[in-house]
């Protein structure tokens, strides 16, 4: 194995939770408390190299360097929108690329992270699934996305205040790494992002919804629903053939009962497909009595797909129809309209060759 291959084989230091780093240190003849110092360098001082960690001995820095990677992402493209949204295309050590988006809201800065290189779920409206799944991201590669964005914000003395796991990939298809990621960014010695400021969204991998409910974390949870009935959902999201809408709703009820938390439903509006008033009525019936909230998403035009945008009047009429039936609903503000904002668009455009490989 040459040096470059050896470097690639090393796990990312960002993949380790604090207790795992302590275990590694003690197994390697070091004191466990060093883990807090290393976390401080990684997440508070945001060091670029092990060499910088000046309160660790030279031998220990060398040991860390021999066993872990610290740099896992290289910024290939950084696009800033007129509304302040920044979209990053990061290159991974094996040449694949992923997208991460910084969105600016009145309540703070939110980062949308990617969990997989590509996706195998096959939602018919999504550019991220066009080349299939290439590989899962390590927990550390997900963590590093937030660290990278935080470093960009350090220049203006700003902070990442919330994280949404809604970028490329199905988080529950990479469950263990996603869970480690959540624990690392939530930990007060890590990035210290409050559970209530983290949102994870799934297309509906039912067994993992039960598992996630049993974790009993105070994280915000969203389901990508996009249809009010099973036929339409199967047309838009083939996952509905494996995990049927009825069973999905049972899992949702279990989650709400178990955690006591409200659930969000993401509903992308696709012109003349799922955006008619009868769809809103059906949706209201499906969600009746549930502790939930609906997020209506006016979809961006995806060049590779045929869906058209829902006219503004229709979006408001759909919202009103839900409200009139007692459903909590908001329309998602569009951001980064001028910079390939829909999930996977930047990657699809910049990496046409990669997607074919
Ligand atoms: S919408 Fe999400 S789950 Fe569906 S194909 Fe795209 S990345 Fe995968």
Automatic annotation (TrEMBL):
S-adenosyl-L-methionine binds at residues 169-170, 201, 224-226, 300. HAMAP family: RNA_methyltr_RlmN (MF_01849). GO terms for cellular component: cytoplasm. Its main location: cytoplasm. This is Probable dual-specificity RNA methyltransferase RlmN. The gene is rlmN. It catalyses: adenosine(2503) in 23S rRNA + 2 reduced [2Fe-2S]-[ferredoxin] + 2 S-adenosyl-L-methionine = 2-methyladenosine(2503) in 23S rRNA + 5'-deoxyadenosine + L-methionine + 2 oxidized [2Fe-2S]-[ferredoxin] + S-adenosyl-L-homocysteine; adenosine(37) in tRNA + 2 reduced [2Fe-2S]-[ferredoxin] + 2 S-adenosyl-L-methionine = 2-methyladenosine(37) in tRNA + 5'-deoxyadenosine + L-methionine + 2 oxidized [2Fe-2S]-[ferredoxin] + S-adenosyl-L-homocysteine. Reaction proceeds by a ping-pong mechanism involving intermediate methylation of a conserved cysteine residue. It comes from Neobacillus piezotolerans. Specifically methylates position 2 of adenine 2503 in 23S rRNA and position 2 of adenine 37 in tRNAs.
